[in-house]
Amino acid sequence: MEEEGLVYFEDLEVGAKAAFGMYAVTREEVIDFASKYDPQPFHLSDEAAAQTHFGRLSASGWHTCAMVMRMLVDNITERKQAGLGSPGLDELRWLRPVYPGDVLRVETEIVGKRKSQSRPEMGSFQSLVTVFNQDDVAVCTMKSIGLIRVRGI
Question: Model-level pTM?
Answer without folding.
Answer: 0.92
